[in-house]
Amino acid sequence: MLTALHNYDVFPKVLRAGVETEITIEPLGRHAALTPGSLCQVELLPTEEGSPVYYPERPNHTLYPVTAGSRGELRLRCLLPSEQEYYLRFEGPKGRVQLSLYAVKEDLAGRYPFMGDLHVHSFRSDGKEAPEIVAANYRKFGYDFMAITDHRRYYPSLEAIRAFAGVDSDFLLTPGEEVHLPGTDVHIINFGGDYSINALVERDDTPDAQGQPRARQGAVPPPVLSREEYDRQVAALAEELALPEGVEKISFAVCEWAFRQIRQANGLGVFCHPYWISDVYQVPESFVECMMERRPFDAFEVLGGELYFEQNGFQAIRYYEDMAKGRVYPIVGSTDSHGSVNNPAGTVARTLVFSPENTREALIGSIRDRYTAAVDGMDTKLRLVGESRLVRYGNFLLKHYFPLHDDLCHEEGRLMKEYACGNREVREALEQRAPRMRALRRKYFAF
Question: Is the pTM of this model over 0.85?
């Protein structure tokens, strides 16, 4: 966390552009407090208007004379005219202090940043820990939402949800699964769907799922198709699709069928990791090109899974080149994690969603509307992939908001693990964390 944030709290941090707002700067300890009643010059500088030294004609420098309060705090009213980051500078007891604010346009005002993962595995398939333990560990890492998405299995995500049923929490667990259907090797995520897509087809390749629930509570899934009826539907769809020469019709039709089924289930269909090296790149390049041209998916997993450059690097390049061609689609980042502890790739990627609230419906709607950035965690220095304005905003949040957010998440995740392991005495302490997280958002976002 930035040293300045250890010494000073500034709030709100995110404001509506063009709306005058009161800002408070509070010292975090006597060493940082200004002398009560002393006059302090607070300098406000927009970061995108150049230095006032070299661009003196631009509106890039405002001074606010502020009298320190009884606790050494500063309060000022300021108007940030346009969407960007602004520096606040003043002389503290130990030298110059720099803090930051961010102004957002109206479409982002009322949307809060939620960090999460749409693609994670548990020991129910090829992961290492129980679903509820995976969930607790990722809350410790600072995640606001996630789905357990085991291969061919929907019920593990329901196990994670049941483990914390009735506990007041700001952490959202949604249903999910990794979809593998006969006829294709393409990996697809069903995030938040009301029921299992894998279980729509009769199969014998996931025997431990037999008899397990195939829908979230209250949802009624469609009847299970025989393999013959499934093959007939896929073959009929393949005949309808006008695909380029050389693209496997049945495989592509299976993908199209799966994405349609996910949407019918009110879920989000994610096209996963085409540049994962599974012997060679998992999906042929012409097949990927066709997928990006037709875009049957709801979102593309632009980051996730592996620490080598080819997967995430090539997928990010593909995304930006597609955007330059006018192919615009939503993106997400996910860990595709198979272990939530002592795993170098355990936080390789995540999704930052700007959403009105942390609910399944709001998150899915916000992702579809392209209010996301994918966070690259391959290195200790986090980077983002996405549209420029959301990347700039997300970069500010990673430095100035999420370190404070993650401190609260870490303790909540530790308590979640104790609770999941049978210690019901921690429930009261666990439930005290939810109001604190909601209060954090109210404090730092002037919406």
Answer: yes
Q: What is the pLDDT of residues 229-268, one digit of tens each?
A: 999 999 999 999 999 999 999 999 999 999 999 999 999 9
Separation of alpha carbons 275 and 205, rounded Å: 26
Contacts of 219 (CB under 8 A, 6+ apart): 194, 195, 265
The whole-number average pLDDT for the span 428-439 is 95
**Intra-chain end-to-end CA distance of the chain, in Å:** 25
Residues 98-137 as b/e (b if ≥16 CB within 10 A, e otherwise) read ebbbbbbeeebbebbbbbbbbbbbbbbbebbbbbbbbbbb
Q: Residue 388 class from Cβ within 10 Å (0-12 exposed, 13-18 middle, 19+ buried)?
A: exposed
Structural contact between residues 223 and 233, judged by C-beta atoms closer than 8 angstroms? no
pLDDT tens digit sequence for 21-38: 999 999 999 999 999 999
3-state secondary structure of 134: helix
**Cα–Cα distance, 305 to 346 (Å, whole number):** 8
d(C-alpha 69, C-alpha 13), whole Å: 20
Count CA within 13 A, CB hemisphere, residue 240. 10
Structure token digits, residue 159: 């196990």
Indicate the residue type of 224: V
CA distance 181 to 255: 8
Q: What is the DSSP-derived secondary structure letter of residue 226?
A: P
Give the Cα separation of 1 and 20 in Å (integer): 28
Q: Phi/psi at 269 (nearest 5 deg)? A: -95, 120
